[in-house]
Amino acid sequence: MARRQARLRSAQPEARMQLEDESAALWAPELDGVARDLLNSAVRCFATSGYHATTTRDVSTGAGLSPAAMYVHFPSKELVLYEIIRTGHERALQEIRDPSIESAPAAADGLRLLVSRYTAWHARHHVAARVAQYELAGLAPEHYAEVMEIRHATNDVFRRAVSRGVEDESFARVDVLPVVRGMLSLSIDLVRWYRLEDADSPEQLGALYGDLALKMVSR
């Protein structure tokens, strides 16, 4: 077991080098540089090894700090995870909570723009988004409940976009909730495999997924 863990740790720096995205721009402006460095390190540690397999030493060392340095800025590893997950969900919601989406001339235009922007955001920040979407089990109950509220608000944006087209009969009479789950899955699950150096840019992928979403509700 010790040898296996040593092999995993020796491979982590190379794996983290492959996880390049724009997540470093997500953090709150009031955080100082050290706190931001710790979050950048934690994002890559959690994305590479998972929250539970990552130690506070891993996070601090990845930021070029002493093992105990993290506690000066974040009293626990869970609070680091919470900052990443809450910020990721809030920023993604901000990206789609835009009047131009709901006021689009046609329901199809609004839905295409919504899915395109949500998809492109997840592609552009795929490392932080991977942690935000797939490490929820590491959150304390009160933090989990807070993030769920943000997720519900995000789902509501999608439900309104699909319901608009169903109600004005420009979309097929689909069952809204499962269709919305399918659209969200399209936009979110790409964080498992997408890399910024891929052939398709976030915007190109967003445009593709926006068109796919319309096929899900076409008459």
Polypeptide structure, described:
This protein folds into 2 domains: 2-76, Orthogonal Bundle (Arc Repressor Mutant, subunit A), CATH 1.10.10; 78-216, Tetracycline Repressor, domain 2 (Orthogonal Bundle), CATH 1.10.357. It has 11 helices and no strands. The chain is mainly α and 219 residues long. It has helices at residues 2-17, 33-49, 56-62, 70-73, 77-96, 99-102, 107-124, 126-134, 141-167, 176-189, 202-216. The protein is elongated.
Lay out the secondary structure.
Blueprint: H1 2-17, H2 33-49, H3 56-62, H4 70-73, H5 77-96, H6 99-102, H7 107-124, H8 126-134, H9 141-167, H10 176-189, H11 202-216
Helix pairs in contact: 2-3, 2-5, 2-8, 5-7, 5-8, 5-9, 7-9, 7-10, 7-11, 9-10, 10-11
End-to-end distance, in Å? 56 Å
Chain oligomer state: single chain
Number of helices: 11
Largest sheet: none
Q: Low-confidence spans: pLDDT under 50, at least 5 residues?
A: 1-17
Q: What is the alpha-carbon Rg in Å? A: 19 Å
**What is the CATH architecture descriptor of the largest domain?**
Orthogonal Bundle
Give the CA-based shape.
elongated
| CATH homologous superfamily grouping of the largest domain | Tetracycline Repressor, domain 2
Helix content: 55-70%
Question: H/E order of the elements?
Answer: HHHHHHHHHHH
For the record, the count of structural domains works out to 2
Total number of beta strands: 0
Q: Class of the largest domain in CATH?
A: Mainly Alpha
Percent of residues in β-strands: under 5%
Kindly name the structural category. mainly alpha
CATH topology call of the largest domain: Tetracycline Repressor, domain 2
